[in-house]
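Here we describe the complex-level prediction in full. Unlike the single-chain runs in Section 2.1, the two entities below were treated as one system.
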Amino acid sequence: MSKQTAQSHMTQQNDLPMVAAVDLGGTQIRTAVLRGDRLLSRVGLLTGDDPLPKRILPRIFAAIDQALDEAGVRLDQIAGIGVGAPGPLNSRTGVVYAPPNLAGWHNVPLRDLLEQQFHLPTFIENDANAAALGEYMFGAGRGCTDIVYLTISTGIGGGVILGGKLLQGISGTAAELGHMSIDWQGERCNCGNIGCLEQIASGVAIARRARAAIAAGKGNELRAFALSHSALERSNYDESEPDPSTYVSARIVALAAKAGVPLAEEIVRTTAEAIGVGLVNIIHIFNPEMIILGGGVTQIGAMLLEPMQRVMRERAMQVPYEAVKIVLAQLGSNVGLVGAGALIYYNR
Amino acid sequence: MSKQTAQSHMTQQNDLPMVAAVDLGGTQIRTAVLRGDRLLSRVGLLTGDDPLPKRILPRIFAAIDQALDEAGVRLDQIAGIGVGAPGPLNSRTGVVYAPPNLAGWHNVPLRDLLEQQFHLPTFIENDANAAALGEYMFGAGRGCTDIVYLTISTGIGGGVILGGKLLQGISGTAAELGHMSIDWQGERCNCGNIGCLEQIASGVAIARRARAAIAAGKGNELRAFALSHSALERSNYDESEPDPSTYVSARIVALAAKAGVPLAEEIVRTTAEAIGVGLVNIIHIFNPEMIILGGGVTQIGAMLLEPMQRVMRERAMQVPYEAVKIVLAQLGSNVGLVGAGALIYYNR
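The structure predicted for the assembly as a whole is:
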């Protein structure tokens, strides 16, 4: 019951104890000391090309110490350490299985290693679940009890809160909403499944589709746009055929779509429709009060949101469709740290 | 908390109070008096072609009275009335919205009408949710806390129990697992969505696919098999081209597949693979302890279950796949009544 009513206690930020947070990503590792969603310090480091646990763990420990120093806080003033990490991981045992973007990680007992180092209560969650909790306690989901958080960036992740409780599943791997197939006879996803939402509508998928069209000679206008907007333009200008992978990204495709490049518009529209289909599935499966959309791809704005909403309007069952509010995430780039810290408030 | 521990109290059947149950279907309406999963009486009636509430409700009331009579039980010996009804409905308000197979039903306050008639606590649920609860308390799911029930018959329905609690959603319409799209650019489902699991893998879909192949002249062997196994064979024998809809059913396709008719084998295999894809999505979304498969289509047996399991093995993420048990439902044709009665034990 303490979990279910945790949210109501969150309104008074100053009543909250301070916590340490770790946002462990494939590119960056960030640590912070927070009180609620207020950052008292923040320390970032690059994950690097060689993130073997034995190399990276001492650096995480040092970054936590540094965040404490910068906040002017002693270890015994901290209620616990919350960690958001790439899945798959088991939040119950605290073991990180083998995230595709953390090379060399295999069944790492990250929670226990942190507890041995700092002697503080430590909780670890899939990064999307942690972000969902952050938005639920401190962001767009405040005041709700049943929310689904969907983050659409490089990949697509999900976090689900039902009756105020995080949906974790029997092995702590639930809510892998990006690995729901919406195209069962389609193309294979990195995860091994076929036609996953992530395989169709992630940032990586947007860039992949653009590059394939350019490589097939169908994207001259997009290619020209991308080259003119790319930092590589000057250095590559006189090469006959630069590799599209060096200058075409999801961000460039979004800019091209806004500038009216037809191929880019079509890619954004297809992406938006696929996300809409995923949201219809989420509405039919969870009948949630609110769906919170986060991640860089949602920053495309109306060009993405309008076709997405059209698909939902056309396809979803009326009763759950009329019940759900679709909103954008509010915590921005700190969602990983705020969510990781929220794990302490949630689990106390 | 009483809900979460309800299951543990269920083991001693004789300790349970008696309840009345109504299983309201598009074809049949059944009422019963039960103690746990033990039927003390059962009364069935046909829904008929004209199931307007004002006509059918007095008949339901009479059938409940008759079930009480036959069990030799007075109304004041009954703890409550549980109702399983076709969705969409709102289990919180007790209102049945507009089920496709109950013509003339529109926002019927069925729970209140029953309470006014019998002055007993009355609970109503989507039929698949009620069945899930029945299997959880008295069938294959005993001892589990996180189960997903999927019933594959005329349509495909779902019920989800998480931490011992039924997933109901904010409007009481959650767990519409049959209306999860797995083919987002596919064909339109009756529900308005596109490429729903139900549209691809239900009993109706099996028969539809067979009839389409026969109508296109590609199913001569299946047509001959169906005619020879159909009760209509004799009466239609000398007509030149009987309508396949009069002699091809999902059951006939299953028999033909077992007899080695290639088209029927292919239809069963495609159905099985689509169900497997749906189960992979369920595994990724819920990471459940157990998935319970019910409904007539599952009675096809190994020809269905083996391709389904192959797809799961090939496509699902390893950790949640290894954690889940896939089992067949145990309550058989009484699942609707047992599940409806279980609503009383669950909600007390």
